[in-house]
Amino acid sequence: MAEVNYKKKKIIEITNVTKTFGNMTAVDNISLAINRGEFVTLLGPSGCGKTTLLRMIAGFELPTSGRIMLEGEDVTNIPPNRRPINTVFQKYALFPHLNVFNNVAFGLKLLKIPAGEKTLKDGSKKQLFRKLTKAEIKTKVERALSVVGLSEYGYRNVTTLSGGQQQRIAIARAIVLEPKVLLLDEPLGALDLKMRKEMQLELKRMHNELGITFIYVTHDQEEALTMSDTIVVINDGAVQQVGTPKKIYDEPANAFVANFIGESNLLPGKMISDFRVSYLDVTVDCLDKGFAKNEPVDVVIRPEDIKLLSVDSPKAQMKGRIVSSVFKGTYYEMEAETGGYEFTVQNTDGVAVGSEVGMRVEPDGIHIMKKLRSVNEFIGEADGEDLVWMCKGDFSLDLPEGTEKGDKLKVRVPFDGVELTDDENDGVIGGNVTQSIYKGTYYQVQVYTDTDEDFYVDTSDEWDINDRVGINLIREKVTVEKYEEEESDD
Amino acid sequence: MTDEQPPLVDKSAAFGRVGRKPQFRRSYFSFPYIIINVIFVVVPLCILLGFAFIGPDDTFSFDNFAYFFSHGENILTMLYSMGVAALTTVICLVVAYPLAMCLASSRINKSALLVLMFILPMWVNSLLRTYALQNLLIDLFGMQRGFGAALIGLVYDFFPFMLLPLYTSLANMDGSLTEAAHDLGAGALSTFFRVRLPLSLPGIMSGVTMVFMPTMSTFSVTEIMGGADTYMVGSMINELINGGDWGGSAAFSFILLILVAGTMALSNLITKGKVETEGLGGVL
Hints:
The structure holds 2 protein chains of 2 kinds. By secondary structure, chain A is α+β, with helices and mostly antiparallel strands.
């Protein structure tokens, strides 16, 4: 019984799917289950692998490894024309040589439906198939066109339609086949803002009416929050967080999600004890527990969760000064400067620039996230008196006593123990900046070396993503230990 | 309100043209081309037309046309030329289409160099190519001069003109259209006949035009490769010119021109109509 329920609930199961193009990994070991009837959004910045994942579900790309199941059946290697899944393409991909009616009817004309059984001479039964009749096709097309609100457009040329209308035709063309899953690849990307808002509501309505599972790909976090039942945040080819829009917004799993979804204030902090966190120079209550004592954490505070009070209010946790204020239509967005950090604050009442204010955040407005990694660890090899060979570079570091050339060493580099240089040749080794997250008072930059290693660097400078930079280590901050093989169980 | 009422805004003033020196306009750039066109296309055509109506006694007459239509063998040669041209075009199309598909597929053809290899023969003079082919086929492989050799020569000579437009139209085709067809349930064959082929029709049309027209009036290839077996209208006109019959050759050329233009117009009309009926028709 449980088995049946399980199967009924999950319509798509993706298990350990990886896709590489040459030496670039687009999708990195993603596992994901999608429930029947849900509106699921794959959300992430461009190039994060979300479209590749969608194309593998559609069947346009084959996974390098891993498995995709549809209703308990392995469809990993089944071509797109034999999957009960249809796609709405980013640029619509309507057939320019066919009119609206024939675009929508395209799939129906190819469709073969069961038409009873025939008993063969040897007594066995053979399933018969037939094509749809013209009348059947007409009925279905007209119904699909009415769902998208374009009943009168059947004999129009698709190239004469507006972007929004073309998008509706593309949707009609896909839903007319009554797929089990509808894939939408940034379908609203080419529309203007007003049209996009309209279509968001339309899509939500269609989803409710049709009861088909929607998998929607977008980089627009607002769109994802508006429409989805479940959001899957993807970055660097890996799932960062899966959850309802509210959960993702309120409780981001890591700094990337917090930064990507909505506006947020992201600060370095420290857990004093369960339910107590300190950041900047205040210690306040929060709702999180289970961290080690004094564990460094990331603190997320949404701009609307900061209450502005009078400067001498006893309730104020922090004192600050408003440095800018912009009216955004329904609220004011202000920057409040305190202790070297500028908080973004949203409030329905504006406060004049230059005023001193008190600020307070209630415990439920503080979100604590584990720091993903607090130190860079590498395995290197002694290459001389004070040289360590690692990541194909000779770094000059203090070696422990009695190290001999060729010994294996474990090098621990704190995030602030790395120095980046503009010119790759000024560093011992070079790398690409793959991520740069503003952490409130500094940037956390991820540098990907040519030896497949990641350096996490805390720096006060902003570095452009994809820039080549040089990497130097600050000798005093790096610790080098002898590397013991049995230590590797960590 | 009367018609004489001046317009509210004086357009000439608005555009700042009043009291200013005439400026250099972009359309002036076309003047050299217009002049070249007149000298090398319009005037020669008029001369051709003029010659065609000059009879043997240097007066205006329809003798040249009458001569053409009163001699059955002339009409037969003309029809024969059309047949050979059509056959060449069809062979070129059938051979070039799959090749163009391969070249246009980024999965099969990873560099543009391959396309260049097929286009490269176009850089060599056609006559040289034909003599080279003659050397190869007839002198080296001992093939007989005649229809077969001539056909090979024609196909070889005009093949790039078919390949190039086909390749361009297939390579520029939006890949998401074939993906969409797949997605909607079409297998490889259906995708080809329902999407790729109809969308490459403009490429096919220009390929056909670029092969059919020059093949029809060619004479060097058929003379070198075919000899007496392949007596085409080109050879016929060549003979008239060599014989000093300017009037006759002009008339024949003119008839050939009309025929080719007519054929092209007709085929354009058919394809255009076909595309439009596809677009307007439907299941009803």
